[in-house]
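step: validate -> pass
step: tokenize input -> pass
step: predict -> running
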Amino acid sequence: MAFISESLQNHKLYRLLRRLAEGDEAAMDTLYRDYGSFIYFHIMNITDNRGIAEEILQEVFLHLATLTPDQLPRFGATSWLAKVTHNLTVSYLKKREMRLVSLPSIDALPDMEAVSLSSRNMEDTVLGRIYVNDLLSILKPETEHILRLRYQGFSFNEIADQLGMNPVTVRSRYSRALQKIKEVLGEQDDT
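step: predict -> pass
step: emit ->
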């Protein structure tokens, strides 16, 4: 086993992870109570979606529950946890995006009147994609691109680098776009 510094061995998070890896089930409750908000905050920072964040939070704790003593951090327990959370969040979002991308594009679907859809889920998926595309069409193309990149799990800094923009500008456009979409959705609920 690799050398573990005394400061890491005395770190509360490391001790909890060690107990968990050794099969102490009570450690999971303590870990959730003491670090659940920390993990959730990091997930929300990427996803900005409570439902998805709660799913990913479960994934993170499932991952932590399956760790072996050899997989524990060797330094910086808190930064290690933040990195694990980030990686699992991005991985989850990429898998989710791959499932969405693997669906046929709306243009590639046959004439809806000529084909009866065999599954209600397929119909819901197609209608959902049309609805989302309609919602996004109210935005400028660059702002729509920011939303799509953010949905794919990219950070504001990564998006800014890709688009050659200031991260503050990216975050501002993203926030305004979400507000605009919420307003449109609110108007539709009123009708």
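step: describe -> Residues 99-128 have pLDDT under 50 and may be disordered.
step: cleanup -> pass
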